[in-house]
Specification:
Blueprint lengths: L2 E2 L12 E4 L15 H10 L3 E6 L5 H10 L9 E4 H11 L3 H4 L4 E3 L16 E3 L7 E4 L13 H10 L2 E4 L5 E4 L2 E4 L1 H10 L3 E4 L5 H11 L6 E5 L2 H11 L2 E5 L5 H4 E2 L2 E2 L1 H9 L7 E3 L5
Parallel strand pairs: 1-16, 2-3, 2-12, 3-4, 5-6, 5-7, 7-8, 8-11, 12-13, 13-16
Antiparallel strand pairs: 9-10, 14-15
Helix pairs in contact: 5-6
Length: 286
């Protein structure tokens, strides 16, 4: 059963390591959230280990540079882990039969979104779906597009039996208050059409296992902090980790009334079968 808290101070002593989501938790595409820097500074002062875990299709260095630019320096965390970075690493190293068996040409809906993923892997991109050996899904051309805009390409890829790699399992994000679709929404539709999808990122186990390794903490002393029930909370539950769900992120329309978490909405939201957070708060704060 979940418990509401006003800030991280109420539970920080229970944990030695913290895994923070980025989008919807630390910022929403603009400036850092008002209390995000203060929270990370408090944890650093207390000697707590922090990993930043993002479903960004970009490499960790790009996300780290962005965080530094909004006032979250590398001194406040041990490492940034991104779904795009993990995708690149697996394509480069080909550590399993799936990645080793991919053909040389990848089709993407917006090649600009995976400019950092393919270089150095031995794979190349093609603008022609018919020439592709597989699909690299790092997101739509525009977050304002709809899944229906990609129906023809998705259906053709599924009919050809092309495997898809999804480099960002998020289905939607809020960018400065505007709701946009992301790669996970296209991947979900691809599966509905009979296509096969391999995911890198939350909620899938490998990124949580790597986070725990970097933190060097016992799993029962690690807290996942994020705003997405389907990725942050689900991944934490599957990995046996506690989680704190923030209400002012991707689920804000379901949970907030006049900017505040409404108890009746929260109860209704979490009554829907699915992974359950241990803690819930309006927003990130100390």
């Amino acid at each position: 059963m979940f418990e509401r808290i006003d800030g991280l101070a109420a539970i920080a002593d229970r944990y030695d390591g913290f895994v923070f989501d980025v989008w919807g938790t630390l910022y929403d595409g603009g400036a850092a959230y008002p209390q995000a820097v203060a929270v990370l500074q408090r944890l650093a002062a207390a000697g707590k280990a922090v990993v930043v875990l993002s479903n960004s299709p970009r490499p960790a260095a790009v996300v780290a540079e962005r965080l530094d630019g909004i006032g979250i320096p590398a001194a406040l965390y041990r490492e940034v882990i991104t779904s795009g970075g993990e995708c690149h690493r697996h394509l480069r190293d080909r550590p399993d039969d799936f990645h080793a068996g991919l053909g040389p040409l990848a089709f993407g809906f917006d090649p600009g979104r995976f400019a950092h993923i393919l270089p150095g892997t031995g794979f190349e991109s093609t603008p022609e779906l018919e020439a592709a050996d597989w699909i690299l899904n790092a997101g739509p051309r525009s977050g304002l597009d709809t899944v229906a805009d990609y129906e023809a390409a998705l259906a053709r890829g599924a009919a050809r039996g092309l495997a898809m790699i999804c480099a960002n399992p998020d289905k939607v994000v809020y960018e400065q208050g505007v709701k946009m679709i992301h790669a996970g929404a296209l991947a979900q539709r691809y599966e509905e059409l009979g296509g096969r999808v391999h995911y890198h990122g939350k909620p899938h186990a490998p990124v949580f296992a790597r986070s725990i390794e970097v933190l060097g903490a016992r799993p029962d002393r690690v807290l996942v902090v994020g705003d997405n029930r389907a990725t942050d909370v689900a991944g934490a539950v599957a990995a046996g980790l506690d989680s704190l769900m923030l209400a002012d992120g991707v689920h804000c329309d379901d949970l907030l009334v006049a900017g505040r978490l409404a108890d009746e909405r929260l109860r209704a939201f979490l009554a829907v079968p699915g992974p359950q957070p241990l803690w819930v708060a309006d927003r990130l704060g100390w």
